[in-house]
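re: ur question from earlier - yeah i can do the single chain one, its not a big deal. heres the input i used so u can compare w yours
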Amino acid sequence: MKEEDYSVSILVDQPPNEVFDRVNNVRGWWSGQIDGVTNKVGEQWTYRYQDLHRSTQKITELDPGKRVVWHVVDSHLSFVKDPKEWNGTDIVFDIRKKGAKTELRFTHKGLAPSVECYDDCSDAWGFYIKDSLKNYIATGKGTPNPME
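and the output i got, formated as tokens:
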């Protein structure tokens, strides 16, 4: 039986292109220090949060109003045995109309229950997608810093 990658969906009232734009403005919904361009295919950007997490993402796909894909080219998670667990994984945002609403499906391909950081990382992603990003899409104000 194949393991399932972490995935979560939200429904919002905003149109797909607006959802797409908000996802790409990572600084509006994900806490920590973000260096680099986050909205252009081929660009790489780095995320840092305290001494816990550093990762560099390469933007591999941007389909306006439909899809965003980041490939994790390098990572360091200080709270697990293998700090490079995220290396080679893909972070995917699929966007589509669903009736009068827009559905955003987030999937971290490679983040599965057998991975040591799964519990902590899926909890964090759940907060960032279901709370911070959802608020950012709906109101223009994310809530990216719950622990600060």
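The chain has a mean pLDDT of 93. not sure if urs matches, ping me
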